[in-house]
Amino acid sequence: MAKKPIGPVRRVFAPWKDPNAVPFIEFRNVTKRFGDFTAVNNLSLKVYEREFFALLGGSGCGKTTLMRMLGGFETPTEGQILLEGQDLAGVPPFRRPTNMMFQSYALFPHMTVEGNIAFGLKQDKMAKADIEERVQEMLRLTKLQPFAKRKPHQLSGGQRQRVALARSLAKKPKVLLLDEPLGALDKKLREETQFELTALQESLKMTFMIVTHDQEEAMTVADRIAVMEAGEIIQVATPAEIYETPNSRFVADFIGDVNLIEAKVMETSEAGTKLQAVGEDFQIETSQKVGVNVGASVWYAIRPEKIRIVLGEEPLHKVNATSAVVWDIAYLGDVSIFHSKVGEDHTLRSTVANVTRLVERPISWDEQVVLSWDGDAGVILTS
Amino acid sequence: MRNGPTWFNVTSIALGFSFLYLPIVILVIFSFNESKLVTVWGGFSTKWYASLLHNQQLLDAAWVTLRIAVLSATLATVLGTMAALVLVRSGRFHGRSLFSGMIFAPLVMPDVILGLSLLLLFVAVDQSRGFWTVMLAHTTFAMCYVAVVVQSRLVGFDKSIEEAAEDLGCPPAKTFFQITLPIIFPGVIAGWMLAFTLSLDDLVVASFTTGPGATTLPMKIYSQVRLGVTPEINAVCTILVCLVTLGVIAASIATKRQQIQREKDERAAFGAD
Description:
Low-confidence stretches of chain B: none
Order of helices and strands of chain B: HHHHHHHHHHH
Function (chain A): Part of the ABC transporter complex PotABCD involved in spermidine/putrescine import. Responsible for energy coupling to the transport system.
Structural class of chain A: alpha+beta
Pfam family, one (chain A): TOBE_2
GO molecular function, one term (chain A): ATP binding
Oligomer: heterodimer
Keywords (chain A): ATP-binding, Cell inner membrane, Cell membrane, Membrane, Nucleotide-binding, Translocase, Transport
Strand content of chain A: 25-35%
Enzyme class (chain A): translocase
Low-confidence stretches of chain A: none
Largest interface: A-B, 34 and 24 residues
Number of domains of chain A: 2
CATH class of the domain at 56-228 in chain B: Mainly Alpha
């Protein structure tokens, strides 16, 4: 189950699929209440060694509280948190083998960059020469050598972020906790840093846990993502699984752009499921089998880039296809998003990659179009 | 909008400044008066400053005052900082409002009442009055000023800096001395200076709580003035004014310099990007 650095062949890293794999971090029925407010509700989660794990959710979903409980800054009201099989209850933050990179970076303003990085090592009563060596190593790793003698207020935002990272990595913790680490950086720097983080995690062979509200960030860096809402985990899966097969409308809607079509189950068979769109005259056929009865209300979720759009009056069969009228076009440079009216009160979005330089749009406003998709491109959601 | 000062602005500034500083200017001028009569100018002389050096009583009083001020300011700073920490950090504990109210009450309590109650306390516990009772009394009222100053510094303090220190393996007590204290140090120093000044010029509380052999400078000056103002007193006061002014100027220059340096550093950092 070794995670190999980038090479000709990358072996699959998926310990969560192995029933015999021992979890590195385990949350067992953890609940955290602040007065009447339940921040984390009876949550269980397993994270494996060398995983880059992301906790994703909107503000107030409990993701930061969950991480702070692992760091020791909050005590669970109920439940257990285990690290390498050891219960962390009662272990204060300064004795935990985890290090955290704070959202505000929390650099020590009265110490130089070197002093900040060496602080944790000094607490371990490390030999002076070893500290010096490790500090230099961290400065190299984060490309901070020219700034070693500067104080935090003499650094730019991106440099401070790197100092915070170097400081939390210096002790080589068993788990590195990252609390919205890139939130304060501008978009370009953030994207660069995301790739740096993954490369770093792979080369250091450490377990990283990141808290973020930015789905793109989570998808870029993480091996697995836990989507959280109201103190509960809605889905834990790889970025691709979360995107392609969300388990609920919440996840489908939260991650990326999605068309949600309300439908009734018409037919279930060995071959799959047939749906009738509610209030519209088209059907959906997919090979997905769902455990619900005929007549049940479901949702069919399909990503905009999976809907084809062509000029035309009517499709041959209104199965996985429908006629529509272009209502709005958003040109984003790399792609164009078409909002097409299906019937009276439904719109479907479809994205088209602008593969040629377009001067005149092939499809324009108020034109009759046919929208079609592969039945298996979308997913039936029952919740 | 017209540039330059208008006659109205000039007049108001002149009036304001003379209202504030005329008495002090007169005091300073008359400290250089040759004549013994305070109200009659008899020519320039520094003889009152020279005679000060031979006035053993005044020198003793100054020495007592200085010792009391240093000791009580230090003690008040320790207690006031602790109080501020509790108020800002401990969240909502039982009796917090009562505690914060009681800490700040001496700020508005008349000195006479404070002095009297302290006197009653010292009498009740049968403590003979003198140097130590004045010192304790000064600590009592100075610590709430320190608490206010330090608290304002702590409110803007990012708690995650302390969490970061603990996260890196530093126990809480060590974190306080290595991280928190250095960061809030300017506030602590400002609190100490305030406490020092308050103790230096307190007359009322000191007169209630003092005993034989512990006459402070303000008490000495007051008792001499009742026998008539002498240029010697003017000289003492001029020295005090100079000391305080120098202290204030030094402190503000230091602050300003720090600020300029900081701005320069920040510009350098962002320019380098």
